[in-house]
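Homework help thread (please don't just give me the answer)

Our assignment gives two proteins as sequence + structure token strings and asks us to describe the second one. The first is just a warm-up. Here they are:
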Amino acid sequence: MKDIQEPDDLAEPALRRRAVAAAHGDAPFDVLIAGGTLVDMTTGELRAADVGIVGPLIASVHAREKRADAAETIDALGAFISPGLIDTHMHIESSMVTPAVYAQAVLPRGVTTIVWDPHEFGNVKGLDGVRWAVEATRGLPFRTIVLAPSCVPSAPGFELSGADFGGAAMVEMLTWPEIGGVAEVMNMRGVIGGDPRMRAIVEVGLASGKLMCGHARGLKGADLNAYMAAGVDSDHELISAEDLLAKLRAGLTIELRGSHDHLLPEFVEALKTFDHLPQSVTLCTDDVFPDDLHANGGVDDVVRRLVRYGLRAEWALEAATLNAAVRLGRRDLGLIAAGRRADIVLFEDLTDFPARIVFANGRRVAEAGRMVLDLQHSAPDALFGTMKLGALKADDFRIPATGGKVRVATIDRPRFTRWGEAEAQVAAGYVVPPPGVTVIAVAHRHARADDRPRIGLLTDWGSWRGAFCTTVSHDSHNLTVFGGNAEDMAAAANAVISAGGGMAVASEGEVDCLLPLPLAGLVSCKGLAEVAKNFADLRAAIDRIVDWRPPYLVFKACFGATLACNEGPHQTDRGLADVSTGRLLDTPVLGPLD
């Protein structure tokens, strides 16, 4: 089937005739990559070979020095010739830059294809947000397979975002030619329990014949079988080596993600128990913060770290190329072979993987770590003005209560949350948070419901000497504030509200750092270097007001604390929500103690 997402049609008869002639020696190549070492993704060999290109097509892979007739010859001596890298699951919005800026960051590193789930834009701007995601990637020399967000919001009935995608929205998105499938199905309990909304979304996705991507965090046994039997066939939410092996054995495609670095060493050790890399192992970034993107790159950095942790370089590259292409059903990608698309990277070595030259569709797009093409940037008016929330007061971050002492519900532990209870004093009509408890507040910002902040109490989140506010708050992206006192929480929140979205740190009643993200409250209009610097400054500011305890109590945990689709209690704009039990509390106050 013709791939209408591509700017160049490999089935075009004149192109194929030219390629056949060049391959047979009856015509010169457009480009000859000569003197390099081919990384063979089918055999795992490193072998000497030259590669001839005609237009966007690889026409020939042959012995060194066998041919010299080409309009341009690239000296690949000392370099390793690899297919372009493929990121099988990611969110550009997590890097807080536009698609053009993201492409400019990763193309020079050898990343030529990404699979983008724009559910952050979908949750804030609905179908218009997804349309913009598609439009913003047009014309880039960078393959972006956009997926249709399946869970907007991620936990219906427990939270509200800026839109609500049911089966009809999925039908519409899947008719768009640029949409490559259904994005991660996060409402796991809805799928397993046969919720009509999720059943409709999954059935529409299956009928389209496109990708059906998963989010199977914590699922095992009967739950995992039921989730897969519904039609979902991939996962990136691995929690341990045991989980990785169980899901490989279950038959899921694994999108091994780089955003949880503390798990990668044990994943490597688990994979090394096999005598070959399972074909179902691919790589993804999921989320990359702007300073990490600027310093380390995208899925190329996942490859680099896996090799550092002991995985064979050939296996890491295979996961990021051929295995990924097989997963995507893209027979034109993932292999340096005659008849394939000329997405090619020349790596200087197989340790640090610096890219000497990058080709996309046969065109040289980057060299020595820099783009050789200018990319068009866009920041449409439609993504501005999404902070539909007025200024807040300190009392908005306090929990009303009567009496002298109350019993309160708590959300215990970052990431793997569980319910807890505590006793709290009441003073002047408000709960006094118990010692060691962090306050979390979530206020609806999309004008689809009341915007009164819902307050929760977190344990094992350290001692906060100030407050942090963010509108990047997965996945409904409501205004979320963490803090040790109401005054600093109000100061941080109002700074973000005035900026039209973003992040802020406050202490002693003053704003210490502000990162404006005016595009949907998620993304900056600025270039990557500036956004990375501002984000690094914000990291430093929050490090001064809270002491992190890796691997779970880390800065990144702030952005997932509202991810209500995951097991256990989470704070949302509707209250304390737990999809696994169906529990939803408007307030953490459970009752009086005197």
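The one we have to describe:
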Amino acid sequence: MMDNKPEECSVCFNDYDENRLRPRTLPCGHTFCSQCIDNAIKNGQLTCPSCRAEHAATAATQFPISYAVEAFVRKLKNTQLTTEEVVPAKPYEGPTRGISKTLRSMVQEQMSSISRLITSSEEVLSQLGEYRGQLGDWKTHHLQLQDRLYALVEQNKSAMKLLELEDTSVVDMTTQGEEGKTQLQAMLGNLDTVNTPQEVGTTIDTADEYKMKVEDWVRKCQELFPDVKTVHTSVKVQETIREALEMTTTETGATADPVHLGDSASSIINKVQEITGEIPQKQLTVEDLRRMSEPVKRLVEAGRVVAVKRLVEAGRVLAVQEDQDGRRSARITLQDGQLYLHSLLRQPTPAHAHTLQESEVVGVLEPSCTLAFLDLGWAGSTRGRVTIRLTPDTPLARQFVLLCTGQQGHTYRNTKLLEVVYKGSQWECVGGGDYESNDGEGGAPLLPDLQGQYRESRRAGAVLARGGPRGPRCAQFVIITRDRQDCCQWPNVFGDVVSGLDVVRAAVNHSDITQVTVVDCGVVLPL
């Protein structure tokens, strides 16, 4: 409905106005009239009539007015009015006297110029309305951040009060302890100088009294300190504030380069997006991912790079693949400065996700993809990542990439390790990767010809295919866990573990190797 008649509310179908039917935009991006928003608020919650997103709300006035929609409605009404009033009932035949054709042409040209300028001004007014709405959103966000900052300040004050009370208690107990120690030291001197039985009895009784007093003091100190609530609150508040400060640290200081907005014909909102680095839906590209690892010179470019990084860190960037069975998607994550493409899965696409075609992302893998990963887990948790450097341009390595990314529908994800061979000896190795039956009987090759030039190795971490490139189950992989001490070498090696061999060895020592699974898998994007 919004596409066909944007001038009317899609709930009540009434045209927007500047009173009860004033258009307001929800955080999810959909716009409705104030009256319908008020009617939809129930128990402090508003469910968007379009996307069913939930928003905390008490009144329609807390949502920003859509000045862009208002400007559009005004423009539409003006256009209708002009059409009704200006167009004459019969063709204009021109004045019968007094104005020559030349002057009439000049008048018509001036009228056309004014009409074009009116149209341009209306477009700018619409942009200003939209920009004002954006400014309103930012003011709302600043107020929300301000409230959160105030809350942090109050938490900090509360933590400080607890520390002050604890410090006062420590000072009091320290004073008591110093007095007790002084009294005990005095008693040592008195006991050393007693001369009569009466003095001995009196001094010992006094000493016992002081000893009991100090022993009671020691017991109280052990019971009272440290105060768990004070210490825990102080540490957690410090961590929270430190993280908040680190998140708000920006590189746009006084020495930042000036922002060049480029084409003056761009709309105001487009320029705003350039400055903020905001990336509208469907405008993310593989080039944006590549630029995350490159130095940038312009502030505008840096803003976009930061925006892309935040999207990736928030899990909102996915590679998608469409086929006859529907859509599959793969997460793209960032860790230690490297981008990881995970296995394609049939999973719901998160709201407001930015998607790239899987073919575009995978296109950057050839022929330079040399790093793949397997995340191993057991006992209900992921224990570590195993990163494998593959031998480029070998068929077994390409097959391994296919099964790590799931490009052909099959994946190592959720497969289990199958067996440990020669455990404890120099030939110890572990096998897995039966993507078909997950019991060691499957794992047929995905590529028709896996013959190639392969290496030999006697080192731990070597990765090879079960039965070699001609084996009927050669999609299964074998990881060598110990260096060979004899003169022989493992043949048909197509990769080596470069990190995480300790994870593989820990899996080998697990009580039941079949309980160890490939929790996740994928490749490192060479961007």
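TA reply:
I won't write it for you, but here's a hint about the kind of observation we're looking for: Residues 101-193 form the longest helix (93 residues).
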